[in-house]
Amino acid sequence: MTFLTHLEDSTIQRLVEGALDEAEATAAKGHIEDCSRCRRRSGEVSAIFTALSAPFSLPEPPADFLALVMARVDLEPGLVVEPIRIRAVVTSVAAGAAMAVAGGLLVTSGGGAILPTAEIATGLATLLGKAGLLGAIAKGGAPIAAAIAVATGAVLTPFLVRALRAVQPSPVRATLRSL
Amino acid sequence: MTEGLTDAALIAAAARGRREAFSELVKRHQGTVFRIAFRILRDEGDARDAAQEAFLKAFRNLQSFDTARPFAPWLYRIARNQALDKVRSKKSSPEILERADIGDEDEDEGAGAVGRDVADDAPDALSQVQSAELAKRVGGALTRLDGKYREVIELYHYENLTYDEIAGTLGVPIGTVMTRIFRARQKLAQLLHEEKAA
Fold first, then answer.
1. What residue numbers bound the domain in which B17 lies?
2. In the predicted model, what is the mean pLDDT of residues B3-14?
3. Does residue B132 share a domain with residue B85?
4. In the predicted model, what is the mean pLDDT of residues B113-139?
5. Is B1 a domain residue?
6. Residue A68's closest chain B neighbor by CA?
7. I need a labelling partner for A6 at 20 to 30 A (CA). Which of A43, A132, B8, B195 fits?
8. Over 80: is that where the pLDDT of B149 sits?
């Protein structure tokens, strides 16, 4: 393939852009070597491409742009809180309840070994975290401890929720509103 | 947790109302959306407002979005339309209207004449200037291009969108995008020559 006349501007642009196939590119380059006019125009197009590839300074969105958008999205109906956030709250409540149960059992036993306190606390925390409070009770393990956990959780949860409301940003508040 | 997901996966989750998924989409596209609006409005405050409205509009319409299609051009098109709406609402500013002149008039306008009147024996001026100076001159020439040509050049060279993405953003066929980019470069070359001659 050879170019007997001057290269079209479109051909030169595609050559510079690397969009010509190999045969066309070879022929175009061969023509440019022998043709001062096409060589000059090719140089111009290359220069424009180079200039256009230089960093171009434009303002970036403000730092709080994401927060501003999401604050407005939060007001939209149909938004679902993230499961991870629900899990975090449930796990916090479960851990608090389990710790209260463990403490209560220690006090009840007077420091002795009436009940396997640590095992019950650990098991409760796991069960409460994975299966939820009702699931733990349904499994029937340590029913007395579970009953205490229910009572403790019922007492502790409102305080925990109030505390989180006071200190957490809007996503968590959205979660808490849905509880 | 959402960083590694594709746009399509994030859209599916966001369409079910998952806040974090939509937040990640905003994070990914806020720069381009903001700049598309800024290029039309040339005002950071207006661009911020238009970009915010674009994301909200996208969120409200996620349910009807076809995830088989690419998300970015759809979102960018919303942003562009939001910015143009803002321009229309500021009709008292002729300067803004002139800058935003990105209509879809006849593609044949001026075709063929551009760049063809360059004297064969003109010195190779462009190759003799430093790249920074050239970039500045090209930037200046860009502002004198018609809006529809400037827009495709900016989307292609500065935002690195593909022809397909630009076509989706502008709502025109891909052939039109290629033609506009080709003519825009021709016009740039012509403007630079005119500047040199002056």
1. 7-97
2. 90
3. no
4. 51
5. no
6. B52
7. B195
8. yes
Question: Which residue of B19, B46, B48, B133 to mutate against A (max A Cβ within 10 Å)?
Answer: B19
Asked if the structure places residue A19 within a domain, the reply is yes
Same domain, B42 and B83: yes
Query: Given A52, A73, A82, which is nearest B153 (Cβ)?
Result: A52
User: Phi and psi for A76 in degrees, rounded to 5?
Assistant: -75, 140
Helix (H, G, I), strand (E, B) or coil at B120: coil
Average pLDDT over residues A79-106: 58
Nearest CA in chain B to A64: B48
* CATH of residue B113: 1.10.10.10
Q: Which of B50, B75, B97 marks a domain boundary?
A: B97
Instruction: Please list every residue in chain B whose beta carbon sits closer than 8 Å to the beta carbon of residue A41.
Output: 118, 189
Q: Do A44 and A91 sit in the same domain of this protein? A: no
Range of the structural domain that residue A144 is part of = 81-177
- Of B97, B129, B148, the residue at which a domain comes to its end is B97
Question: A47 pLDDT band (50/70/90 cuts)?
Answer: confident
Question: Is A13 in Cβ contact with B138 (below 8 Å)?
Answer: no
Residue A44 placed within a domain? yes
CATH of the domain at B71: 1.10.1740.10
Q: What pLDDT, on a 0 to 100 scale, did the predictor assign at position A77?
A: 79
Residues of A in contact with B111 (CB under 8 A): none
State how far the Cα of B56 lies from the Cα of B79, in Å rounded to an integer. Answer: 10
